[in-house]
Amino acid sequence: MEGVRLSEAGILAIETYFPRQCVRQADLEKFDGVSSGKYTIGLGQDEMAFVDDREDIVSICTTVVRRLVAKQGLDLGSIGRLEVGTETIIDKSKSVKTALMDLFCQAGNTDVEGVDSTNACYGGTAAVFNTLSWMESPWWDGRYGLVVCGDIAVYERGPARPTGGAGAVAILFGINPQPPIRFEINARATHMEHTYDFFKPRLGCEYPTVNGAETLSCYLRALDRCYQRLKKRTGSTGSVSDLADYAVFHAPFNKMVRKSFARLRYNDYLTDSASVVDPQGKLSRFRDVPLADSYTDKVC
């Protein structure tokens, strides 16, 4: 079957799952002996979800798939691709996707493409792009694509621990003249580099190795480059509010999302200061700050 045009492909439904248990960040501040507000105000975190002793990455991904299928009334045979974006592994070779195949095998469907996509927090994004590429390819057979993103983020005691959490999301892709979320042609940009900001070299340990300062700088570099390239590819000369109705960010912690949106406004100001409202002159102070310095300058 001939692949579809990207303008016809979109997200038809989304389902989420979060564990019932959570830790109040204010209580974690007391337990860790840090100042009040360090996590709740400094990081913008209120609560942190965690799984119980009967849950793992397979179970939470299974739950979210079951929920989506039930709510949408789907025949599991109508799904032709399943890809999982996760960095939470329970086996060094066997993918989470193969465990989810239990659901499909019970329905008599073993003709399902896809495996896991693993690269820290980017795996889910890669799974989305891969599924769209499948739908555009001559190998697409007209069935739905399903992307499942899930993680159980656990950190050892220290400054990174309050940024942990757990959850899963299932995203159904298909063809609809007016899908709830449609993907725009050419409205896509990528930034990729080699850095040791976050990695898991200890295969016998679930805790990652984290360079906090570098991971924040890496995030902002990627945001800057992707935004600049996106504006160039789409021919946009306005601000972020002209380019999109909503902005969705990867959220290592909520304060980072606020900083990221402000970062886009900062980029707009550097490109065309006249287009950005700055009544108190707060942005003008950073006009001459080199972009590389702004990643580590706490004033910025």
UniProtKB/TrEMBL annotation:
UniProt enzyme class: transferase
Active site per database record: E87 (proton donor/acceptor), C121 (acyl-thioester intermediate), H250 (proton donor/acceptor)
Pfam families in alphabetical order: HMG_CoA_synt_C, HMG_CoA_synt_N
Domain Hydroxymethylglutaryl-coenzyme A synthase C-terminal: from-to ranges: 181-298
Single annotated GO MF: hydroxymethylglutaryl-CoA synthase activity
Entry EC number(s): 2.3.3.10
Residue sites binding CoA per the record: K255, K259
GO BP of this protein: acetyl-CoA metabolic process; farnesyl diphosphate biosynthetic process, mevalonate pathway; sterol biosynthetic process
Pathway: Metabolic intermediate biosynthesis; (R)-mevalonate biosynthesis; (R)-mevalonate from acetyl-CoA: step 2/3
InterPro entries assigned: HMG_CoA_synt_AS, HMG_CoA_synt_C_dom, HMG_CoA_synth_N, HMG_CoA_synthase_euk, Thiolase-like
The protein's role, per its UniProt record: Catalyzes the condensation of acetyl-CoA with acetoacetyl-CoA to form HMG-CoA.
PANTHER family registered for this protein in UniProt: 3-HYDROXY-3-METHYLGLUTARYL COENZYME A SYNTHASE, HYDROXYMETHYLGLUTARYL-COA SYNTHASE
Protein name in the entry: Hydroxymethylglutaryl-CoA synthase
Taxonomic source organism: Rhodosorus marinus
